[in-house]
């Protein structure tokens, strides 16, 4: 899993049928936990901009967000209540 901070959202009116009704958020991984760039993650739990979240990737993301047949590479699977020491 990856720890990241939600920095924005993405709106897509045309997308794969399996993704209709889902929200997409831009997540910036916390540098000390992941060496990468921003991630677009599906969000079924209602994360907001500025919150720290847990991200699952690959098949765990598809299963974790309840869309096993959708083309999902990353999913927000948790909101971190206490992010002490993350920055």
TrEMBL record:
Its main location: other. Transmembrane segments: none annotated. Keywords: Bacterial microcompartment, Carboxysome. PROSITE patterns: BMV (PS51932). It is found in: Carboxysome. One of its GO terms (cellular component) is carboxysome. This is Ethanolamine utilization protein EutN.
